[in-house]
Amino acid sequence: MKLVPVLLNDDVKAIAEASACYAIEHNHKVTIAIVDSGGHLLHLNRLEDTAPFTVDMATAKAKTAALTKRETGFYEDLVLKGRLSFLGMPLEGIMEGGFPIIIEEQVVGAIGVSGSTSQIDAKIANVALNNYQHKAF
What we know:
There is one protein chain. The chain has helices spanning 9-25, 54-68, 73-80, 118-136, and strands at 31-36, 41-46, 98-103, 106-114. The chain is of the alpha+beta class and 137 residues long. It starts with 8 loop residues before the first helix and ends with a helix. The model has no long low-confidence stretch (mean pLDDT 92). InterPro entries: GlcG_carb_metab_protein (IPR052517), PduO/GlcC-like (IPR005624), PduO/GlcC-like_sf (IPR038084). This is Heme-binding protein. It comes from Marinomonas ostreistagni.
């Protein structure tokens, strides 16, 4: 049997707080979704004045990152380079802004951010993950 780490509630809170603080500090109106390794929603925060559609996109980005164990920007790059077949994937969040959360080389969940440009969404998620990893280890 193989034992794998899991996200605890305190982990989710730390990642969520770091991402929301960065977004608010830089006046980015985004939704932040955090899922477990199976893509199941653990946390959702639609910041004030953020468009409602961003809830679905942030959740989709997080789910895609968790289930594929890749940053969602990977798929966006493939599509932009002409691999249009990836548009038919059964996953919806194939735009930059979704990142797996990795503990001890295991994907334990993912974060997805939506509401700004893909690059800013990715920056918000990366800031949160970098902050979390420095505290966790």
